[in-house]
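TA notes, week 10

Several of you asked for a full example with nothing omitted. So below is the full record: structure tokens for the whole chain, then the designed sequence directly under it. When grading your own attempts, check the secondary structure regions first.
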């Protein structure tokens, strides 16, 4: 799916961030596609769940670890005003 978006809109994956609230869909897709990932803790995912995946030796669980996280998408608003 992401390959279609890249080819249709000329997206540069190195300048793209996947923002989502689910590890097993949003973050997995971002990591699989080589994107920087940002998890918002406003969905079903908890920080304890992220830490469990991060501490695991299992590659499948490691693929669910985001690069960054925020409590809410609203936490990004100050950075967007710059």
């Amino acid at each position: 799916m992401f390959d279609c978006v890249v080819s249709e809109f000329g997206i540069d994956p190195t300048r793209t961030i996947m923002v989502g609230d689910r590890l097993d869909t949003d973050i997995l897709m971002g990591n699989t596609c080589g994107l920087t990932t940002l998890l918002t803790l406003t969905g079903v995912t908890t920080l304890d769940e992220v830490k469990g995946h991060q501490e695991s030796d299992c590659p499948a669980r490691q693929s669910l670890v985001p690069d960054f996280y925020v409590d809410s998408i609203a936490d990004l608003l100050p950075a967007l005003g710059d």
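The radius of gyration is 13 Å. Use that as a sanity check on your answer.
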